[in-house]
Design brief:
This protein has about 625 residues and is an alpha+beta fold. It is about 45% helix and about 20% strand. A five-stranded mixed β-sheet has the order 10-18-13-14-15. It has a four-stranded antiparallel β-sheet with strand order 3-4-5-6, with helices on one face. A hairpin with a 5-residue loop joins β3 and β4. α2 packs antiparallel against α10 and α3 runs antiparallel to α9. The longest helix has about 60 residues.
């Protein structure tokens, strides 16, 4: 090696050492800076045709980051934030429903109502016992209404959260565009972009918590960001724009607005539908699914306990015409939402159960089998808007036209359904389930609860206007007549003679309605399925609902904890991959200083040799 080559090597070595010393010093200075990644200098040496060192480039500063671990960590953030949001809201939802130990919870109040009715059976004329039943019923109705409103408040809070998160994502995308522009310009000027890439990573980290995104390198040192299903969020250094219109005040069953994304090219898509995880997806799911399902459960409780108390069975009477037998049924008391149950055997000896549902709005017809919770019946609707029993019967005759049964008016505006001896078909049962319209002389039923959303009116479970059941829990109230006179719990008959004040018949009927009689409950509430709906008493269903909310909250908390632990482990590995180790950096700095000194000594030696050569010359 010639002196000039040795000199060049030493000069280039000093240049590299100085650059590396600067970078190492910067590493040490930023060791505690969040998100700062360790940097190192990449050196490129150039040789001439004789193999001598001709040049050295030490301007490229590279980050030390494990990109595989980084990608895993960023991807885990969406699932963790999703789980955290779900756990937070379901825990608060569980608090609303309460526990059996909470005396003001639904499960406690329904138990108290059942117990107070049972106590009243033993002493029907006891005014204090009557008043106790009314007071507990009133507390139960108020708790249902209050719980419904609290869930509505949670839905509004979720809607507000979506608005804030949409704005945050817009800000992050805008910031990514700004830093990408700086990175692109710096790269074109051969200036280090390492620190700017650190800043961009911190922005991507925040964005990953809101949505499960796919991030890849685009042209000109910029990024390409897509949603989980491939929709564009950011490309060509241009961010898409998120827009969201707050809903704020939710009506029963109302879905909230979604977040719309408009790409720079003008394409619009639904961000929530285009994503699978992240806090935005969680909040939208809470607002429109989990919380509305909880309100449906409250509506189901309110509806079923109201119907259990207020509805009575109208039995049919046996009828025979020639060789054909069946039943006659009085249909004059039917109201919208009331039902007729028909059991018959067809020509193939197959048994059928048909539920005929009365409607005031013929545009609702035909009805789907899901109109009732019973998985074993066929549902047929019929129009009662005329108010004329004879017309009811005509419409029922049409509805049952394909059954092969003999359906007619018995001549006194009673529904007559007979089997056909020649077919043959047979009728095994016929009855109606109707809502009482008065406090007495209509059987043992009593409308303890009423629909008070406008003015107190009977709850009949009508299907009109979206269904009377929808949002009923928000306005359920105790019958004003009962609040004024608790003796109605006992007095069910005035003509031809009044029942006695110690007659337990009505109270026993009401008590049995809660704790003995069973029914199928709406699977749309999330409890049970359409093929196997929950079946039990009112008390069973309330307890099942409270248990459902508790289990849901517990499962969400467990899932959130597991996701948090997984993400924390990835975060530690990710930080370890880029973090600055002070001991290592200080030791490296000593090496660099020694190398710097060695190069300086080489230069000094060459200088001395050159001086001697000059002196000889």
């Amino acid at each position: 090696m010639g002196l000039s080559s040795a000199l060049n090597t030493a000069v280039f070595g000093i240049t590299y050492n100085q650059r590396q010393l600067d970078v190492t010093a910067n590493n040490i200075a930023n060791a505690d800076t969040a998100g700062y990644s360790k940097k190192t200098v990449s050196a490129n040496v150039y040789f001439d045709g004789l193999g001598n060192v001709a040049g050295l480039s030490a301007t490229e500063v590279r980050r030390i980051v494990d990109e595989r671990v980084q990608a895993d960590y960023f991807n885990s953030l969406a699932d963790t934030n999703y789980a955290s949001q779900i756990a937070n809201f379901t825990d608060r939802l569980d608090d609303i429903f309460g526990t059996i130990d909470d005396t003001s919870s639904l499960t406690s109040l329904v138990g108290q109502l059942s117990s107070s009715l049972s106590a009243l059976v033993n002493d029907p004329g006891n005014y204090a016992a009557q008043s106790d039943v009314v007071a507990i019923a009133d507390a139960f109705a108020r708790e249902l209404s209050s719980s419904y409103q609290q869930i509505t408040n949670l839905r509004e809070e979720a809607d507000d959260t979506l608005a804030r998160q949409a704005e945050s994502v817009n800000d992050l995308l805008s910031s990514i565009a700004d830093i990408d522009s700086s990175i692109r310009d710096a790269a074109q000027s051969n200036v280090s972009t390492a620190d700017m890439e650190d800043e961009r990573d911190r922005l991507i980290e925040q964005l990953s918590g809101y949505l499960d995104i796919n991030v890849s390198d685009d042209a000109n040192n910029t990024l390409f960001i897509q949603t989980a299903d491939g929709q564009q969020l950011y490309a060509d250094n241009q961010p898409s724009t998120l827009s969201f219109t707050p809903t704020h005040s939710f009506q029963p069953g109302q879905q909230g607005n979604t977040i719309l994304v408009t790409t720079p090219g003008g394409t619009t898509y639904d961000l929530v539908a285009a994503s699978k995880s992240g806090s935005i997806v969680a909040v939208a799911e809470l607002r429109d699914d989990i919380l509305t399902e909880a309100q449906t459960q409250l509506d189901t409780i309110a509806a079923e306990i109201s119907l259990a108390f207020s509805n009575v069975t109208v039995e049919s009477t046996a009828a025979t015409v020639g060789l054909d037998t069946g039943f006659d049924l009085d249909v004059s008391a039917l109201q919208a939402g009331n039902t007729i149950t028909l059991e018959y055997t067809d020509t193939s000896s197959v048994s059928h159960t048909v539920t005929l549902v009365a409607v005031d709005d013929p545009s609702l017809l035909p009805l789907d089998d899901s109109a009732t919770a019973n998985p074993n019946d066929t549902v047929l609707g019929f129009d009662i808007s005329s108010g004329l029993p004879a017309t009811y019967i005509t419409n029922i005759t049409t509805a049952l036209g394909s059954t092969g049964l003999l359906v007619s008016n018995d001549g006194s505006d009673n529904l007559r359904i007979l089997g056909d001896n020649t077919a043959p078909t047979s009728v095994e049962g016929l009855s109606a389930n109707v809502t009482v319209t008065a406090n007495s002389d209509q059987g043992l039923g009593l409308a303890i609860f009423m629909d008070g959303r406008d003015s107190p009116e009977l709850f009949t479970d009508a299907l009109e206007d979206g269904g009377q059941r929808l949002g009923y829990a928000s306005g359920i109230t105790v019958n004003p007549d009962l609040l004024a006179d608790s003796a109605l719990l006992v007095n069910y008959q005035t003509t031809p003679t009044a029942n006695t004040t110690n007659d337990p018949a009505r109270v026993q009927y009401l008590a049995d309605a809660m704790s003995v009689n069973t029914a199928h409950f709406d699977p749309g509430s999330g409890i049970g399925s359409s093929s196997t709906p929950f079946e039990g008493t009112i008390i069973d269903y309330v307890n099942q609902t409270v248990a459902f909310q508790g289990n849901q909250a517990a499962d969400a908390a467990t899932y959130a904890k597991s996701k948090e632990t997984f993400t924390m482990n990835l975060a530690i590995r990710y930080e370890e991959s880029y973090a600055v180790d002070l001991d290592t950096e200080l030791a490296f700095m000593v090496q660099l200083e020694n190398a710097y000194a060695a190069n300086a000594r080489v230069m000094q030696t060459i200088k001395e040799l050159l001086d001697e050569l000059l002196n000889i010359v």
